[in-house]
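__Record contents__

***
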Amino acid sequence: MATGVDQAVGMSLVVFSLLLFTYYSVWIIVLPFVDSDQALHKYFLPREYSVILPGIAAIILLLCIGAFTAVIMWKNHKPKKVD
């Protein structure tokens, strides 16, 4: 069973992910249809970051997965027996 701390961490990750998804969705889907002189635009980064930031996040994620895989393979490497 999960402890209270595990549940709190899990719930905070879910809430963070939901907020991030909502922010990005509004930024990409809604903001292009809102006039640029509206106050809503001051809460969002410029549009070019909508492609750059997820690209950087994807590269970092792939590097972490590759590093994790390399470490696991290196630790489980068994040298061949020499007769």
